[in-house]
Design a protein that fits this description.
Elements (H helix, E strand, L loop, with lengths): L1 H13 L9 H14 L14 H7 L6 H42 L1 H6 L5 H22 L2 H17 L6 H12 L4 H18 L1 H10 L5 H5 L13 H18 L4 H18 L2 H20 L12 H19 L5 H25 L8 H9 L7 H11 L6 E4 L2 H8 L9 E3 L4 H11 L1 E7 L8 H5 L3 E8 L9 E7 L6
Length: 492
């Protein structure tokens, strides 16, 4: 059965993996992966995503970049999924392993983010492994488990800073849940802390030698190292973060309420009927989520992904307790069958839409904007790059009138010989230079008037011909415009 779970997980994350076009963050990770090959292992890491691009680099992103970027996420998530199955078995037996296998596999929120190249799902997988090894150490009392817990926790934080609160989870498990002599627990915790800190020595040294900011963007998420992005009170901010979390619970899929019910009932069951270790680990697992909600100054829907795998493990432990009690009244197969139907309703429809046409999948409004309709979405850009060879003459340059990250992202879809020249919007000065040299240039604009140049602005440089426009989902006006720009005839 374990093989079937792993096969289902791998298939659901792999099929039609490139259906959703590249998000801006994914293009950033790809760019960093390419820079590894250029001798820059820590290129622009001030957002706290330090080594997640290394795995992408391992698969040589210069070839099939979109697939390579995302298969890296799938492979890391598979490790976390296997770890969750093992952790659930340790805490709640075979029933818990079955339940978490179904819940993680079919949860729309996790399915969405585990098919894209963002580091949150990857960090969540490494965190799950770290907690697994910490719990294993309490049972087998082997120093090897301590070392593995420290290494995977260090990797999780190096993948993304949002995993840092799980240092408290590991510490809580080592000090409170495990039962070794206290002095031994302290020594083992110090070993874990040493491994985590050691992992940060190379990137910190690199940043210091280059004179860059020490993770400025990441620290500003909690209002450190820069001006706070929010002037509202702490209680109001926490309430807003809680609402954002609630939106992720109810926003993915038409049957999201089933997931909320399964999650809530499972966690309550642990609190009511769990043994000492199960209850304490539940507290330890919920602690990072509470910290994120209370402390974070800037929080995006993807940030909660790191917390969900372990929460599902504990919900599965709760359902194992419920199923054990139900066997007194009903056959166990009925309980498994009912849970299986609930999971199918929860995720099957969403999975089918996401794997075939992502625009048909129900997602929260903020996710819809970020991945489908705003400039961070790859829709429109991908279609423009696919069409470019049939519309332009390769002997003339194509200038991108858009943000540089969007240009780099578009170039990951480029056919050789039709790459965009990246500059900052509106790029009128560069257009004028190239036009004087070649007599004709092409310009690809994004969100004209908001980001890229408008036709009126282009007319100040040369004679404008609209070649084609490209839409983004849920937008009334075309988002991308491809123009031909010719020199005005000179008057004698």
């Amino acid at each position: 059965m374990l093989f079937i779970f792993l096969l289902g997980m791998f298939s659901s994350r792999l099929i039609n993996l490139t259906a959703l076009p590249l998000h801006m963050d994914e293009a950033l990770h790809l760019t960093r992966a390419v820079e590894v090959w250029n001798g820059h292992p820590f290129w622009q890491i001030n957002d706290g995503k330090i080594i997640n691009h290394w795995l992408i680099a391992l698969f040589f992103p210069q070839t099939s970049p979109v697939f390579v970027a995302r298969i890296a996420t799938v492979l890391v998530v598979m490790l976390g999924y296997a770890g969750a199955l093992r952790l659930a078995h340790l805490l709640g037996g075979e029933r818990a392993m079955w339940v978490v296998g179904l819940l993680w596999l079919m949860t729309p929120y996790l399915l969405f983010y585990e098919r894209i190249s963002q580091s949150d799902a990857q960090a969540g997988a490494w965190v799950t492994l770290s907690i697994l090894f910490a719990v294993m150490q309490g049972q087998d009392r082997r120093v090897f488990s301590v070392i593995l817990s420290g290494l995977t926790l260090s990797i999780a934080i190096l993948f993304k800073f949002t995993a840092a609160p799980y240092c408290l989870t590991v510490a809580f498990i080592m000090l409170v849940v495990n039962r070794q002599p206290f002095a031994q627990r302290i020594q083992e915790l110090m070993l874990i802390a040493g491994l985590v800190l050691t992992g940060f020595i190379p990137p910190m040294l690199y940043v210091w030698l280059k004179g860059d900011d020490f993770f400025r963007v990441a620290l500003e998420w909690v209002g450190i190292g820069g001006q706070s992005v929010s002037s509202i009170s702490g209680s109001a901010l926490a309430w807003n973060n809680l609402l954002r979390f609630w939106q992720q619970l109810i926003g993915f899929g038409e049957w999201a309420w089933i997931g909320i019910a399964v999650l809530g009932v499972g966690l309550i069951a642990v609190a009511l009927w769990g043994n000492r270790a199960q209850r304490l680990i539940l507290v330890a697992v919920l602690l990072p989520l509470s910290i994120m909600i209370v402390v974070s100054k800037v929080i995006y829907p993807r940030h909660f992904v790191v917390t969900f795998p372990l929460i599902w493990v504990m919900a599965a432990v709760g359902w194992s307790l419920i199923l054990k009690k139900l066997t007194v009244a009903i056959p166990l197969s009925v309980g498994y069958g009912g849970l299986g139907v609930a999971c199918a309703l929860l995720g099957a429809g969403f999975m089918l839409r996401l794997l075939t046409d992502p625009t048909q999948a129900k997602v929260p409004v903020i996710v819809q904007q970020e991945f489908f309709s705003s400039h961070s979405s790859g829709y429109g850009l991908r279609e423009a790059m696919d069409t470019l060879p049939s519309l332009v003459d390769a002997s003339y340059p194509v200038i991108a009138s858009m943000f540089p990250p969007s240009c780099r992202r578009a170039n990951f879809y480029a056919v050789q010989g039709f790459e965009l020249i990246c500059t900052d919007a509106p790029a009128l000065e560069r257009l004028d230079q190239e036009l004087q040299h070649y007599g004709r240039v092409y310009v690809l604009t994004e969100q004209r008037g908001e980001i890229g140049a408008t036709p009126e602005m282009l007319q100040e440089v040369g004679a404008v011909t609209l070649l084609q426009e490209f839409d983004r989902p849920y937008q009334d006006n075309p988002a991308i415009g491809l123009y031909q720009l010719d020199q005005y005839p000179t008057t004698p």
